[in-house]
Amino acid sequence: MATQRRVNVHQPIRRAAVLTIAALAAGTLAACGANEEAGGGGDDETGGGAATIALLLPESATARYEAFDKPLFEAKIQDLCADCEVVYFNADQDEAQQAEQVDSAISQNVDVMVLDPVNGVAAASLVADAQAADIPVIAYDRFIEGADYYTSFDNERVGELQGQALVDAVGGPGNILMLNGSPDDPNAAQFKAGAHSVIDASELTILAEYDNPDWSPDNAQSFTTDQLDTIDPTTLAGVYAANDGQAGGVIAALTGAGIAPDALPPVTGQDAELAAIQRIVAGEQYMTIYKPIKGEAEGAAEMAISIVNGEEVADTTDFQGVPSLILDPIVVTADNVGDTVVADGFWSVDEICTADYADACAAAGLS
């Protein structure tokens, strides 16, 4: 059954990543009610009630969605339109459940739908359903064919940065494993293409490659463990892991195979999850990609309010024919944790430097 919660968005943000982005909706902040020009599904014949915006996120296993995307989006909507409401859904990585949630949002006559799909390809039909009900759709984080707008990061660049970091860390020829994201996630294909563009031109040799359903850390650990049955772990030069959850599974498999934490090969990641930042400080994970989610979430909120107000969405670029806000990813290693995720308030020193990481933090200059 579809899970939802209607909230009046008056929740404080626990942390705010400091990122300045171009205003997407200059001059649109005064009018917050739904109007006929907006093309939304709300009923304005009752006297012009406040607009309702649906936010549909794909899963809760990845820390970013509940901890950052949702509260940042809600807070920006509240800032731009105090009377607007957000109807929130999380699909828990269940494609059928997300389809039910889209139907629920349509039945509630929301004015705008912000959709981060479980399956980006299949979600094109969900977009068509919403648009048939006169509800504009903003594809959030993952591209959806036919969406009205899109906001995300330069995903191929993410893969390029990950691949280059691994090539640089190995510093020459070597054997690696490659763990990509879910085949159903269109972003995963872009990360993979970007990483291959660098790795394939390097001296690294990919011994085995895996497209991981649902981005599962457990699957990543099992795949790596299986590969280590035929590979001497000490001869592995590095591992490309497309996100931090998989990196954690890879590192668990490597340490389970007898590799000491201070002798682990370089392992990549993405999302700047707290556990990954701690592993990076401790020297267990080589790098992650930090995507300042504040810019993405607030950009989507600004797009939504522009649509609600019937005004043009400003400062977009074209991505596969869809007006888009595309942001830049940032590489994080032990050398710049303080200058990136800490400086932006994404994670605090106290959160990173718990007792288990106190010595590593002191060595990294974070204590």
Automatic annotation (TrEMBL):
Its main location: other. Residues 1-30 form the signal peptide. The keyword Signal applies. GO terms for molecular function: carbohydrate binding. The keyword Protease does not apply. Keywords: Signal. It is found in: Cell envelope. It comes from Jiangella ureilytica. Coiled coil: none annotated. This is Sugar ABC transporter substrate-binding protein. GO terms for cellular component: outer membrane-bounded periplasmic space. SUPFAM superfamilies: Periplasmic binding protein-like I. Residues 53-312 form the Periplasmic binding protein domain. Transmembrane segments: none annotated.
